[in-house]
Amino acid sequence: MSKYNDLWIYIDLIFKQMDKEKIELSFSQIKDVAGIELDHSFLNCKKELLDYGYKVEKVKLKDKKIVFSKVN
């Protein structure tokens, strides 16, 4: 199980509730959901999100946000 598993489940839930193609979460929102700070391991773990049907679209380091999108 990934340390980001809670985040993946949350993202899946948000996409299903909001019926959007993309969502944007701040680093602080991600910390609240995942219970941990983002670190370099996120770059390796983000591929796990594909199992849920989503991907990391863009990492906005300046704004400290990440855009997630549905995989079509």
Strand composition percent: 25-35%
Helix share of residues? 25-40%
Beta-strand segment tally: 3
How many helices? 3
- End-to-end C-alpha gap: 25 Å
Order of strands across the main sheet:
1-3-2
Radius of gyration: 11 Å
| Backbone structural class | alpha+beta
Spans of at least 5 consecutive residues with low confidence:
none
Chain-averaged pLDDT: 93
Shape: globular
Q: Summarize the biggest pleated sheet.
A: 3 strands, antiparallel
Q: What is the H/E string? A: HEHHEE
Q: How many domains in all?
A: 1
Describe the overall structure:
By secondary structure, this protein is α+β, with helices and mostly antiparallel strands. It has one domain. 38% of the residues lie in helices and 25% in strands. It contains three helices and three strands. A three-stranded antiparallel beta sheet has the order 1-3-2. A hairpin with a 4-residue loop joins strand 2 and strand 3 (65-70). The longest helix has 14 residues, at 5-18. It is globular, with a radius of gyration of 11 Å. It starts with a helix and ends with a strand.
